[in-house]
Amino acid sequence: MLGLAAAAVIAAMGATPVAGGEPPAASAPAQPRPTVVLEWEAPAGCPERAQVQGWLDRALADSAADPAGMRARAMVRAADDGSGLVLELVLERPGAPVGRRTMQAGDCHELAKAAVLIVALAEDPEAEVDEPIEPTVPEQPEPPEPVEPEPPEPSEPTVPEQPEPALAESPTPTDTAPEPAPSPERRPQIEAGLRAQAAAGISVLPSTTAVVSLVGALWGPHWRAELGASYWTPVTSRPDGISGGRIEQWTLDARGCGLLRPGPLELPLCAGLDVGAVHGRGRGVTEPRRVASLRLAAAAGPALLWRPTRLHRRLGLWLGADLLVALVRARFRATPAAPGLVYHTPPVGARVGAGIELRFR
Q: What torsion, rounded to 10 degrees, do the Cα atoms 88, 91, 92, 98 define?
Protein backbone atom coordinates (compact mmCIF):
# COMPACT_ATOMS: atom_id res chain seq x y z
CA MET A 1 0.00 0.00 0.00
CA LEU A 2 2.81 2.47 0.85
CA GLY A 3 4.54 1.71 -2.37
CA LEU A 4 1.41 2.52 -4.40
CA ALA A 5 0.90 5.82 -2.53
CA ALA A 6 4.50 6.89 -3.06
CA ALA A 7 4.22 6.18 -6.74
CA ALA A 8 1.06 8.30 -6.98
CA VAL A 9 2.72 11.21 -5.16
CA ILE A 10 5.76 11.06 -7.40
CA ALA A 11 3.55 11.00 -10.49
CA ALA A 12 1.59 13.99 -9.23
CA MET A 13 4.79 15.95 -8.56
CA GLY A 14 6.12 15.24 -12.02
CA ALA A 15 2.94 16.67 -13.54
CA THR A 16 2.96 19.80 -11.33
CA PRO A 17 5.22 22.75 -12.32
CA VAL A 18 8.02 23.58 -9.91
CA ALA A 19 7.39 26.63 -7.78
CA GLY A 20 8.82 29.78 -9.27
CA GLY A 21 9.43 28.03 -12.70
CA GLU A 22 8.08 29.09 -16.13
CA PRO A 23 6.78 26.80 -18.84
CA PRO A 24 9.13 26.45 -21.89
CA ALA A 25 8.35 28.89 -24.73
CA ALA A 26 7.15 27.50 -28.03
CA SER A 27 9.58 28.08 -31.02
CA ALA A 28 8.38 30.92 -33.47
CA PRO A 29 8.35 30.23 -37.23
CA ALA A 30 11.40 31.71 -39.20
CA GLN A 31 10.74 35.09 -40.96
CA PRO A 32 11.65 35.29 -44.70
CA ARG A 33 14.69 37.54 -45.47
CA PRO A 34 13.90 40.87 -47.21
CA THR A 35 15.11 40.86 -50.79
CA VAL A 36 15.90 43.38 -53.49
CA VAL A 37 13.02 43.96 -55.86
CA LEU A 38 14.17 43.46 -59.47
CA GLU A 39 12.14 44.74 -62.39
CA TRP A 40 13.19 42.90 -65.56
CA GLU A 41 12.22 43.70 -69.14
CA ALA A 42 13.82 41.72 -71.92
CA PRO A 43 12.95 40.51 -75.43
CA ALA A 44 12.03 36.94 -76.24
CA GLY A 45 14.83 34.45 -75.80
CA CYS A 46 16.14 36.14 -72.64
CA PRO A 47 15.81 34.66 -69.14
CA GLU A 48 12.43 35.29 -67.48
CA ARG A 49 12.09 37.71 -64.59
CA ALA A 50 11.51 34.89 -62.08
CA GLN A 51 14.72 33.18 -63.17
CA VAL A 52 16.78 36.36 -62.85
CA GLN A 53 15.14 37.16 -59.47
CA GLY A 54 16.03 33.63 -58.31
CA TRP A 55 19.67 34.17 -59.26
CA LEU A 56 19.67 37.39 -57.27
CA ASP A 57 18.01 35.79 -54.23
CA ARG A 58 20.54 32.95 -54.20
CA ALA A 59 23.40 35.43 -54.50
CA LEU A 60 22.13 37.29 -51.41
CA ALA A 61 20.92 34.22 -49.47
CA ASP A 62 23.82 34.34 -46.98
CA SER A 63 24.08 38.15 -46.89
CA ALA A 64 23.43 39.98 -43.62
CA ALA A 65 22.95 43.34 -45.37
CA ASP A 66 19.57 45.06 -45.22
CA PRO A 67 18.22 45.97 -48.68
CA ALA A 68 16.33 48.91 -47.05
CA GLY A 69 13.92 49.43 -49.93
CA MET A 70 16.50 49.04 -52.68
CA ARG A 71 14.98 48.58 -56.14
CA ALA A 72 16.60 47.60 -59.41
CA ARG A 73 15.18 48.18 -62.90
CA ALA A 74 16.81 46.34 -65.77
CA MET A 75 15.79 46.66 -69.41
CA VAL A 76 17.40 44.78 -72.31
CA ARG A 77 16.96 46.09 -75.86
CA ALA A 78 18.58 45.71 -79.25
CA ALA A 79 21.58 47.97 -79.92
CA ASP A 80 20.98 50.87 -82.28
CA ASP A 81 23.69 49.70 -84.67
CA GLY A 82 22.45 46.09 -84.60
CA SER A 83 25.71 44.81 -83.09
CA GLY A 84 24.05 43.05 -80.12
CA LEU A 85 21.96 43.76 -77.03
CA VAL A 86 22.17 46.66 -74.59
CA LEU A 87 21.39 46.45 -70.85
CA GLU A 88 20.21 49.60 -69.09
CA LEU A 89 20.30 49.11 -65.29
CA VAL A 90 18.99 51.62 -62.74
CA LEU A 91 19.56 51.17 -58.97
CA GLU A 92 17.41 53.14 -56.51
CA ARG A 93 17.68 53.32 -52.72
CA PRO A 94 15.88 55.78 -50.44
CA GLY A 95 18.20 58.62 -49.45
CA ALA A 96 20.94 57.63 -51.94
CA PRO A 97 21.76 58.86 -55.47
CA VAL A 98 20.44 56.90 -58.40
CA GLY A 99 22.99 54.60 -60.00
CA ARG A 100 22.91 53.90 -63.74
CA ARG A 101 24.86 51.38 -65.79
CA THR A 102 24.74 50.61 -69.49
CA MET A 103 26.39 47.51 -70.96
CA GLN A 104 26.42 45.72 -74.29
CA ALA A 105 26.88 42.05 -75.16
CA GLY A 106 25.86 39.58 -77.80
CA ASP A 107 24.10 37.17 -75.40
CA CYS A 108 21.15 38.07 -73.20
CA HIS A 109 22.19 35.51 -70.53
CA GLU A 110 25.50 37.35 -70.14
CA LEU A 111 23.64 40.61 -69.56
CA ALA A 112 21.31 38.95 -67.03
CA LYS A 113 24.23 37.54 -65.04
CA ALA A 114 26.00 40.90 -65.21
CA ALA A 115 22.89 42.62 -63.85
CA VAL A 116 22.71 40.10 -60.98
CA LEU A 117 26.39 40.68 -60.20
CA ILE A 118 26.05 44.48 -60.12
CA VAL A 119 22.87 44.47 -58.00
CA ALA A 120 24.26 41.90 -55.55
CA LEU A 121 27.52 43.77 -55.06
CA ALA A 122 25.68 47.07 -54.69
CA GLU A 123 23.59 45.46 -51.90
CA ASP A 124 26.45 43.60 -50.21
CA PRO A 125 30.04 44.04 -51.41
CA GLU A 126 30.92 40.73 -49.69
CA ALA A 127 28.27 38.73 -51.48
CA GLU A 128 29.53 35.52 -53.10
CA VAL A 129 28.43 35.42 -56.70
CA ASP A 130 29.54 33.06 -59.41
CA GLU A 131 31.72 35.09 -61.78
CA PRO A 132 29.70 35.86 -64.90
CA ILE A 133 31.04 36.53 -68.36
CA GLU A 134 31.77 40.23 -68.40
CA PRO A 135 30.01 41.94 -71.27
CA THR A 136 31.68 44.65 -73.27
CA VAL A 137 30.87 48.17 -72.24
CA PRO A 138 30.01 50.64 -75.01
CA GLU A 139 31.66 53.99 -75.16
CA GLN A 140 30.05 56.50 -72.84
CA PRO A 141 30.58 60.25 -72.75
CA GLU A 142 30.76 60.14 -68.95
CA PRO A 143 31.19 57.15 -66.62
CA PRO A 144 28.10 56.51 -64.44
CA GLU A 145 28.24 57.06 -60.71
CA PRO A 146 28.25 53.67 -58.96
CA VAL A 147 26.02 53.12 -55.93
CA GLU A 148 28.13 52.75 -52.83
CA PRO A 149 25.95 51.29 -50.02
CA GLU A 150 27.03 51.79 -46.43
CA PRO A 151 28.49 48.55 -45.05
CA PRO A 152 26.88 47.17 -41.88
CA GLU A 153 30.25 47.18 -40.08
CA PRO A 154 33.01 49.80 -40.02
CA SER A 155 35.46 47.25 -41.40
CA GLU A 156 36.70 47.97 -44.91
CA PRO A 157 35.13 45.47 -47.27
CA THR A 158 36.98 44.18 -50.28
CA VAL A 159 35.17 45.30 -53.40
CA PRO A 160 35.82 43.21 -56.51
CA GLU A 161 36.85 45.03 -59.62
CA GLN A 162 33.98 46.40 -61.66
CA PRO A 163 34.03 46.54 -65.44
CA GLU A 164 35.01 50.07 -66.33
CA PRO A 165 33.56 51.87 -69.30
CA ALA A 166 35.89 52.27 -72.22
CA LEU A 167 37.23 55.72 -72.80
CA ALA A 168 35.61 57.56 -75.62
CA GLU A 169 37.85 57.81 -78.64
CA SER A 170 39.15 61.27 -79.16
CA PRO A 171 37.83 62.78 -82.36
CA THR A 172 40.10 62.77 -85.34
CA PRO A 173 41.67 66.20 -85.60
CA THR A 174 40.65 68.09 -88.67
CA ASP A 175 42.59 70.61 -90.64
CA THR A 176 41.06 73.54 -88.80
CA ALA A 177 44.29 74.90 -87.37
CA PRO A 178 45.14 78.34 -88.70
CA GLU A 179 47.65 78.35 -91.49
CA PRO A 180 51.11 79.45 -90.42
CA ALA A 181 52.14 82.93 -91.35
CA PRO A 182 54.02 83.00 -94.64
CA SER A 183 57.75 83.05 -94.16
CA PRO A 184 59.57 86.13 -95.32
CA GLU A 185 60.73 86.07 -98.92
CA ARG A 186 64.00 84.22 -99.23
CA ARG A 187 66.45 86.03 -101.42
CA PRO A 188 68.18 83.81 -104.00
CA GLN A 189 71.78 82.86 -103.37
CA ILE A 190 72.92 84.48 -106.65
CA GLU A 191 71.45 87.79 -107.74
CA ALA A 192 71.93 89.98 -110.80
CA GLY A 193 71.76 93.67 -111.49
CA LEU A 194 72.52 96.43 -113.98
CA ARG A 195 74.14 99.76 -113.12
CA ALA A 196 74.35 103.06 -114.98
CA GLN A 197 77.20 105.20 -113.72
CA ALA A 198 78.80 108.60 -114.28
CA ALA A 199 82.30 109.37 -113.05
CA ALA A 200 85.22 111.72 -113.29
CA GLY A 201 88.41 110.39 -114.85
CA ILE A 202 91.44 111.94 -113.19
CA SER A 203 94.99 111.82 -114.56
CA VAL A 204 94.19 109.31 -117.28
CA LEU A 205 93.70 111.55 -120.33
CA PRO A 206 95.50 114.90 -120.72
CA SER A 207 93.01 116.49 -118.33
CA THR A 208 90.11 115.47 -116.12
CA THR A 209 87.22 114.11 -118.16
CA ALA A 210 83.74 112.66 -117.77
CA VAL A 211 83.28 108.90 -117.88
CA VAL A 212 79.96 107.15 -118.50
CA SER A 213 79.61 103.42 -117.83
CA LEU A 214 77.08 100.61 -118.08
CA VAL A 215 77.88 97.66 -115.80
CA GLY A 216 76.31 94.24 -115.36
CA ALA A 217 76.85 92.44 -112.05
CA LEU A 218 76.33 89.09 -110.36
CA TRP A 219 76.69 88.66 -106.61
CA GLY A 220 76.20 86.25 -103.77
CA PRO A 221 76.25 86.61 -100.00
CA HIS A 222 79.99 87.39 -99.85
CA TRP A 223 81.20 88.02 -103.40
CA ARG A 224 80.52 90.13 -106.46
CA ALA A 225 81.58 90.04 -110.13
CA GLU A 226 81.18 92.86 -112.66
CA LEU A 227 81.69 93.41 -116.37
CA GLY A 228 81.14 96.88 -117.81
CA ALA A 229 81.86 99.21 -120.70
CA SER A 230 83.07 102.80 -120.24
CA TYR A 231 83.48 105.75 -122.55
CA TRP A 232 85.95 108.48 -121.63
CA THR A 233 84.82 111.70 -123.28
CA PRO A 234 87.30 113.60 -125.55
CA VAL A 235 89.87 116.02 -124.19
CA THR A 236 91.90 118.46 -126.34
CA SER A 237 95.56 118.98 -125.56
CA ARG A 238 97.77 121.79 -127.04
CA PRO A 239 101.15 121.68 -125.35
CA ASP A 240 102.62 124.52 -127.42
CA GLY A 241 99.37 126.44 -127.64
CA ILE A 242 99.11 125.92 -131.43
CA SER A 243 99.20 122.28 -132.44
CA GLY A 244 97.90 119.43 -130.41
CA GLY A 245 95.42 116.62 -130.43
CA ARG A 246 92.01 115.37 -129.39
CA ILE A 247 92.24 112.33 -127.08
CA GLU A 248 89.44 109.93 -126.05
CA GLN A 249 89.21 106.28 -124.99
CA TRP A 250 86.84 103.40 -124.34
CA THR A 251 87.42 100.38 -122.12
CA LEU A 252 85.93 97.09 -121.02
CA ASP A 253 86.10 96.90 -117.23
CA ALA A 254 86.23 93.55 -115.38
CA ARG A 255 86.03 93.43 -111.59
CA GLY A 256 86.08 90.75 -108.92
CA CYS A 257 85.02 91.81 -105.43
CA GLY A 258 84.78 90.63 -101.89
CA LEU A 259 81.45 91.74 -100.43
CA LEU A 260 80.96 93.00 -96.89
CA ARG A 261 77.50 93.74 -95.49
CA PRO A 262 77.68 96.21 -92.58
CA GLY A 263 74.03 96.56 -91.60
CA PRO A 264 71.80 97.68 -94.48
CA LEU A 265 74.80 98.60 -96.66
CA GLU A 266 76.92 96.58 -99.07
CA LEU A 267 80.64 97.27 -99.28
CA PRO A 268 82.38 95.72 -102.32
CA LEU A 269 86.20 95.69 -102.29
CA CYS A 270 87.14 95.20 -105.94
CA ALA A 271 90.13 94.60 -108.19
CA GLY A 272 90.36 94.02 -111.91
CA LEU A 273 91.51 95.17 -115.33
CA ASP A 274 90.55 97.88 -117.82
CA VAL A 275 91.19 96.89 -121.43
CA GLY A 276 90.44 99.13 -124.39
CA ALA A 277 91.82 101.68 -126.80
CA VAL A 278 93.03 105.29 -126.71
CA HIS A 279 92.12 107.27 -129.83
CA GLY A 280 94.02 110.45 -130.85
CA ARG A 281 93.58 112.90 -133.72
CA GLY A 282 95.86 115.80 -134.51
CA ARG A 283 94.67 119.37 -134.26
CA GLY A 284 96.19 122.63 -135.57
CA VAL A 285 98.33 120.97 -138.24
CA THR A 286 98.01 120.67 -142.02
CA GLU A 287 98.15 116.90 -142.08
CA PRO A 288 96.61 115.65 -138.80
CA ARG A 289 97.09 112.02 -138.01
CA ARG A 290 94.60 109.62 -136.45
CA VAL A 291 95.92 106.75 -134.36
CA ALA A 292 94.67 104.21 -131.77
CA SER A 293 96.77 102.66 -129.02
CA LEU A 294 96.15 99.89 -126.50
CA ARG A 295 94.75 100.84 -123.12
CA LEU A 296 95.56 98.35 -120.37
CA ALA A 297 95.41 99.21 -116.67
CA ALA A 298 95.05 97.44 -113.34
CA ALA A 299 92.26 98.73 -111.12
CA ALA A 300 91.49 98.43 -107.43
CA GLY A 301 89.16 100.25 -105.11
CA PRO A 302 86.18 100.21 -102.74
CA ALA A 303 82.54 101.01 -103.33
CA LEU A 304 79.42 101.59 -101.27
CA LEU A 305 75.91 100.40 -102.18
CA TRP A 306 72.70 101.27 -100.35
CA ARG A 307 69.33 99.72 -101.27
CA PRO A 308 66.30 101.50 -99.70
CA THR A 309 63.77 99.10 -98.26
CA ARG A 310 60.88 101.34 -99.27
CA LEU A 311 61.80 100.53 -102.88
CA HIS A 312 61.74 96.79 -102.02
CA ARG A 313 65.55 96.85 -102.32
CA ARG A 314 65.29 96.74 -106.11
CA LEU A 315 67.09 100.05 -106.64
CA GLY A 316 70.43 100.91 -105.09
CA LEU A 317 72.65 103.98 -104.90
CA TRP A 318 76.27 103.24 -105.88
CA LEU A 319 79.37 105.23 -104.91
CA GLY A 320 82.78 103.98 -106.02
CA ALA A 321 86.41 104.89 -106.57
CA ASP A 322 89.16 103.12 -108.56
CA LEU A 323 92.89 103.54 -108.50
CA LEU A 324 94.21 102.90 -112.04
CA VAL A 325 97.77 101.79 -112.73
CA ALA A 326 98.71 101.88 -116.43
CA LEU A 327 100.28 98.65 -117.65
CA VAL A 328 100.67 99.99 -121.21
CA ARG A 329 101.37 103.72 -121.75
CA ALA A 330 100.26 105.19 -125.09
CA ARG A 331 102.12 108.03 -126.92
CA PHE A 332 100.61 110.47 -129.41
CA ARG A 333 102.14 113.13 -131.69
CA ALA A 334 100.17 115.61 -133.79
CA THR A 335 102.23 114.61 -136.85
CA PRO A 336 104.82 111.92 -137.33
CA ALA A 337 107.49 114.57 -137.62
CA ALA A 338 106.35 116.62 -134.65
CA PRO A 339 109.13 116.93 -132.09
CA GLY A 340 106.98 116.84 -129.00
CA LEU A 341 104.34 114.50 -127.60
CA VAL A 342 100.76 115.68 -127.40
CA TYR A 343 99.84 112.89 -124.98
CA HIS A 344 101.61 110.24 -122.95
CA THR A 345 99.46 108.07 -120.65
CA PRO A 346 100.17 108.90 -116.99
CA PRO A 347 101.40 105.95 -114.91
CA VAL A 348 98.70 106.35 -112.26
CA GLY A 349 95.18 107.70 -112.51
CA ALA A 350 91.81 107.46 -110.79
CA ARG A 351 88.12 107.30 -111.42
CA VAL A 352 85.47 108.45 -108.91
CA GLY A 353 81.77 108.13 -109.66
CA ALA A 354 78.21 107.42 -108.63
CA GLY A 355 75.40 105.43 -110.18
CA ILE A 356 72.02 103.76 -109.86
CA GLU A 357 71.82 99.97 -109.79
CA LEU A 358 68.70 97.95 -110.60
CA ARG A 359 68.44 94.53 -108.95
CA PHE A 360 66.62 91.90 -111.00
CA ARG A 361 64.19 89.53 -109.25
A: -80
Asked if the structure places residue 231 within a domain, the reply is yes
Q: How far is CA 358 from CA 216, 227, 311, in A?
A: 10, 15, 11
Whether residues 346 and 230 share a domain: the answer is yes
Question: How many Cβ atoms sit within 10 Å of the Cβ of residue 308?
Answer: 12
- CATH number at 342 reads 2.40.160.70
Low-confidence ranges of the chain (pLDDT < 50): 1-30, 132-139, 168, 171, 173, 175
Same domain, 207 and 313: yes
Asked whether the beta carbons of 280 and 247 are under 8 A apart, the reply is yes
Cα–Cα distance for residue pair 359/361, rounded to 1 Å: 7
Instruction: Give the start-end residues of each E strand in 128-243.
Output: 191-202, 209-219, 223-237
The residues pairing with 353 across neighbouring beta strands, listed in sequence order, are 199, 320
Looking at the domain assignment, is residue 130 inside a domain?
yes
CA distances from 25 to 8, 28, 117, 323, 356 (A): 28, 9, 41, 140, 130
User: Which three-class secondary structure state does DSSP give residue 287?
Assistant: coil
| Contact between 73 and 90 (Cβ < 8 Å) | yes
Domain assignment present for residue 344? The answer is yes
Domain termination residue (choose one: 86, 118, 147): 147
Domain of residue 341 covers 191-359
Give the count of domains, the chain. 2
Q: How far is CA 156 from CA 73, 145, 146, 161, 182, in A?
A: 28, 20, 17, 15, 63
pLDDT of residue 231: 98
Whether 4 is in a domain gets the answer: no
Per-residue pLDDT, 293? 93
Name the residue among 83, 73, 140 with its Cα closest to residue 107. Answer: 83
Within this chain, do residues 67 and 121 fall inside the same structural domain, yes or no? yes
